[in-house]
Amino acid sequence: MCGGKGTRMKSSEEKLLLRYKKPLIEHVLNALQNSKIFSNIICVTSNNAPKTREFVSSLDIDILETKGAGYSADLGESLSKFEEMIFVTSGDMPLFDSEIIKKIVDLVNEENVWTSVLVRKTFLLSLGLEAEFFVNYNNEECAYTGISIVDPRRIKNMETVKESYVVLDDKRIAVNLNTKKDYDLICAT
Questions:
Q1: Helices 24-35 and 50-58: crossing angle, nearest 10°?
Q2: Mean pLDDT within 38-58
Q3: Is the pLDDT of residue 145 over 90?
Q4: Is 144 helix (H, G, I), strand (E, B) or coil?
Q5: Mean pLDDT of the chain
Q6: Cα 155 to the chain's mean position, in Å?
Q7: 46-55 average pLDDT score
Q8: Which residue among 46, 108, 140, 157 has its CA within the 20 to 30 Å range from the CA of 81?
Q9: For residue range 103-120, what is the model confidence (pLDDT) as tens digits?
Q10: Which residues, including other chains, have CB under 8 Å from residue 14's CB and lie 6 or more apart?
Q11: pTM (predicted TM-score)
């Protein structure tokens, strides 16, 4: 997912092109490629991030254009285009790597229609990070990482489906750059 406005970052630059050694989106793309477990990598973009779309295209990555109505709406719009299990991730995770991808895939039960990967709120706070959205799972507050494994063949018209969860406290998926504070924190390390 790489078509957002990045408004919480409060930067004139497109968020996914901000650099942490290299553009943020490139960390995620390299991790997906290096995992060698995906048949195809597709970036979901919109008119909100034209430079990101151009950059990703220059890397010969396939593009799927959405309306740019927000993460959930764009994800819902794009799901109907797929006929196989998909691994969804946001493009703003600079510590993401192929090993954590393999670990996530191994932990997910393919019988589930939708599995979201969470980190515990306490773990997130221990890293100096915050999140806006939490879910209570097993009597603990957890934050979404932006990673889901979805079987779109079993979803009709974005109906509500039972969401399953995997909790994995790992900084490679917890560090998701949404604000300038997040970006400054990772650049300071």
A1: 40
A2: 93
A3: yes
A4: strand
A5: 89
A6: 20
A7: 91
A8: 108
A9: 999 999 989 999 999 999
A10: 6, 49, 51, 52
A11: 0.90
| Torsion over CA: 182, 175, 111, 153 (sign) | positive
Other beta carbons within 10 Å of 54: 13
- Under DSSP, the state recorded for 13 is S
SS3 of residue 138 by DSSP: coil
Can you name the residues that pair with 53 across neighbouring β-strands?
Answer: none
Angstrom distance (rounded) from CA 189 to CA 186: 5
Report d(CA 177, CA 93) in Å as an integer. Answer: 6
Structure tokens at 90: 């946001």
DSSP H helices in 59-118: 71-79, 98-107
Largest Cα separation within the chain, whole Å, is: 45
Closest by CA position to 27, among listed 51, 2, 10, 50: 2
Q: Which tens digits make up the pLDDT trace of 51-106?
A: 999 999 999 999 999 998 888 888 888 988 999 999 999 999 999 999 999 999 99
Task: Say if CB 95 and CB 175 are below 8 A apart.
Answer: yes
Q: Which amino acid is present at 95?
A: L
Q: Can you read off the two tokens belonging to residue 186?
A: 């990772």
